[in-house]
Write a structure and sequence with these properties.
This protein is α+β, with helices and mostly antiparallel strands. The chain has a domain at 11-106: Ubiquitin-like (UB roll), CATH 3.10.20. It is 14% helix and 33% strand. The strands form three sheets. Strands 2-1-6-5 form a four-stranded mixed β-sheet, covered by helices on one side. Strands 3-4 form a two-stranded antiparallel sheet. It has a two-stranded antiparallel sheet with strand order 7-8. Strand 7 (119-124) and strand 8 form a beta hairpin. The chain is globular and about 50 Å long.
Length: 147
């Protein structure tokens, strides 16, 4: 099956209709947030282009677009920590994708945490800082090799 997306049309149809018409930015990308389908924990944010979104729909596994490598990649292709997509949602104006996924493997974050959002902003005496909120879920060096 070939997945094709409709052009953005009338705002009412985009916001309330049944036509899949993702609004990719001028760079051809759309933000995609992956959340755990069971717990709702936000695991990561990445970018998709039309082929990555189509591949995600077709295969049931999350595919993203790497801005640094300028190429599509399948989550887990190096680590084995794939994301099996349970549901794909778009926001009201179809300019953000939400993937509800089953995260296979101990973590979504390439630095070893279960989620890429493992730090929070905290106030300190001289301003603000980041504080780690949990332990690493796996050793990224064992998975990806030494940096």
């Amino acid at each position: 099956m070939t997945i094709e997306f409709a052009a953005q049309g009338d705002a009412r149809d985009v916001e309330e209709g049944k036509t899949l018409a993702p609004k990719f930015g001028p760079d051809g990308l759309i933000p995609a947030v992956a959340a755990d389908a069971e717990s709702g924990t936000v695991l990561m944010m990445a970018w998709m282009d039309a082929p990555a979104l189509a591949a995600t729909i077709e295969t049931g596994e999350a595919h993203y677009y790497s801005r640094s490598r300028k190429a599509m990649w399948r989550k887990g292709e190096s680590s084995g920590h794939v994301q099996r997509v349970r549901e794909i949602r778009l926001d009201c104006d179809q300019d953000t994708v939400l993937l509800l996924v089953e995260q296979v493997g101990p973590g979504a974050c390439h630095v070893g945490y279960q989620t890429c959002f493992y730090r929070k902003v905290v106030r300190v005496d001289d301003g603000v800082a980041l504080e780690v909120t949990g332990d690493k879920a796996y050793d990224p060096h064992a998975v990806y090799g030494e940096p």
